[in-house]
Amino acid sequence: xxxxxxxxxxxxxxxxxxxxxxVIIGEASELNLKIGQRGRAEIVxxxxxxxxxxxxxxxxxxxxxxMAQLIDKIRTITPPTHPVLGPGILELTDxxxxxxxxxxxxxxxxxxxxxxxxxxxxxxxSVIAPLENALAELIAQDPQFKARVSYAVGQESxxxxxxxEGERFFPGWVYDESDEFVQAALAGVREAGFNPTITQYSxxxxxxxxxxxxxxxxxxxxxSRENLxxxxxxxxxxxxxxGSASGYYSIIQTLYRQ
Length: 258
Known about the structure:
This protein is α+β, with helices and mostly antiparallel strands. It has helices at residues 9-18, 63-74, 124-141, 180-191, 207-213, 238-257; strands at 22-25, 33-37, 39-48, 81-82, 86-87, 90-98, 109-118, 146-151, 153-157, 163-167, 169-170, 173-174, 198-201, 217-220. Strands 3, 6, 7, 8 and 11 form a 5-stranded antiparallel sheet that branches. A 3-stranded mixed sheet has the order 12-2-13. Strands 1-14 form a two-stranded parallel sheet.
C-alpha cells in the first residue's frame, strides 16, 4: 500500500499484525537476489523573510535570496559512503516561494526539498545534523537569516478510507553474502533452476521497514528489470513471472528445511 511514495509505512502494520520470520520483497530483480538497498529521507529546508513591494525591495527581506545562500552552503556537505551501497546522495529536488505568483511582492517564504539516500546505520539525528550546522553558520553570520530544517511528513489515504502518516525517513539495509539466510535463499533459487547473481536494489523498497527498522530477515526476488519500474508501458515477461513463482516456492521450501 502506497509503497511507491511512502516506503515501509503500511508495512509497519503488516509486520505488527503477522510478525513474519522472513520477508521476500517482490520488486523487480530479474530473478536475481537483492540483499540490500540504500534508504531514503525527504528533508525540507525553509527560509523566512519579510514581504515588501518589489518596487521597494530594500524594505523587505527576500527569502529566496536567503535560500540561495543556504543551497550553496548545503552543496559543500559531503555525505558518507558505504563500501557496498555506495554514496549517501544529497540532492535538491524542488524549490518553491511564497507568495506565488509573486505579483510585485518580495517573497517572505521559501521551501526547498532534498532527497537524501541513506546508508546502513545512519540515524535521523546523524543525517540532519550537517544541515543544522549549515543553518547555524549562516545565522551566526547574518542576523536577518532565519531558517529551519526538518523531515517531510507524509499523509496518504488508502482505498479502505484509512489514513497512514509518518516522517519520510526510510532506513537502508544490507546483508553479507555469507549470511545463513542469504545462502538458504540462494540455494532455493538455484533449486528452481536459476543461477542468480547477488546484488542490491538501486531504489528504495519496503525492506526499509522489514530489514531496516524491524530487523526481519529480508531479501528481494522478483520478475523483470529494475529500469522498467515506474516507466511508461512497464511490462513483465511471462517467463519472468512464472520463474518468480517457482523461485518463491523453492525459497520457502529451503527455509522450512533449515
